[in-house]
Amino acid sequence: MPIRPENRNRYPADWPVISLSIRTDRAAGRCECLGECGRGTHTGRCPNHNGGTAYGTGSRVVLTVAHLDHTPENCDPGNLRAMCQGCHLHYDRDHHRQTAAATRRAAVEAGGQLALAEPQELPMPDRADTPPTSLPALAVACPACGSAPAALCTSHGGTRPRRSDVHQARTKAFKAQQTPTT
Q1: Does 53 map to a domain?
Q2: Residue 125, in any domain of the structure
Q3: Which residues, 6+ apart, have CB-to-CB distance to 38 below 8 Å?
Q4: Residues 13 and 63 in one domain
Q5: Any domain includes 155
Q6: Which of 37, 70, 83, 127 has the fewest CB atoms within 10 Å around its CB?
Q7: Measured distance CA(146)–CA(141) in Å, rounded
């Protein structure tokens, strides 16, 4: 896999020698994946050979070196595995999702947009002290489901609150109550 410019300094200076040794000497030009990629397309060792035709896709195989712990600084041979591009991409898919999300978030912030707070950091409104009259449609009984004034409208025979605490029939009843009759 190509090394991103922002990560290049995380690799040791002799990375090309280490990578070549893993791919050619230890792996003998064949993908070393034993299924840990999660593709589910091969049992035992992946059959792909560097420069050959990839099984299933017919594309040209490029043998890469994967860091099993996703840490480029850790070049211990036990942490490195020669993998064809298909196995390597599948092995790293969750890591790629996380880094892509972080990259998008940083780009939005760099563009001057505010970062969103984490959900646990958002203050929850205190609704316990909110009188029903501040939610006008709750000030009347619901003609559609029969909920009492100040009670949420329910569905499924009263076993669950509706997704919205205001529905059309209740709002209509409140407006009718507020309109003076002549």
Answers
A1: yes
A2: no
A3: 90, 91, 93
A4: yes
A5: yes
A6: 127
A7: 6
Q: Quick one: pLDDT band at residue 122, thresholds 50, 70, 90?
A: very low
In this structure, the dihedral spanned by the alpha carbons of residues 71, 76, 79 and 81, taken in order and rounded to 10 degrees, is 110
* SS3 track for the chain: CCCCHHHHHHCCCCHHHHHHHHHHHHCCCECCCCCCCCCCCCCCCCCCECCCECCCCCCECCEEEEECCCCCCCCCHHHEEEEEHHHHHHHCHHHHHHHHHHHHHHHHHHCCCCCCCCHHHCCCCCCCCCCHHHCHHHHCCCCCCCCCCCCCCEECCCCEECCCCCCHHHHHHHHHHHCCCC
Same domain, 143 and 90: no
Total domain count, the chain: 2
pLDDT in tens, 9-52: 899 999 999 999 999 999 999 999 998 888 888 888 999 999 99
Q: How many CB atoms lie within 10 A of CB 63?
A: 24
Tokens of 92: 């790293």
Q: Please indicate, yes or no, whether the overall pTM of this predicted structure exceeds 0.70.
A: no
pLDDT score of 100 more than 50: yes
What's the rounded Cα separation, in Å, for the pair 120 and 112?
23
Query: What backbone torsions phi and psi does residue 12 show, to the nearest 5 degrees?
Result: -70, 160
- For tokens 């958002």, what's the residue? 122
**Contact call for residues 90 and 37 (beta carbons, < 8 A):** yes
Q: Is the domain of 9 the same as that of 86?
A: yes
Structural domain harbouring 58: 5-96
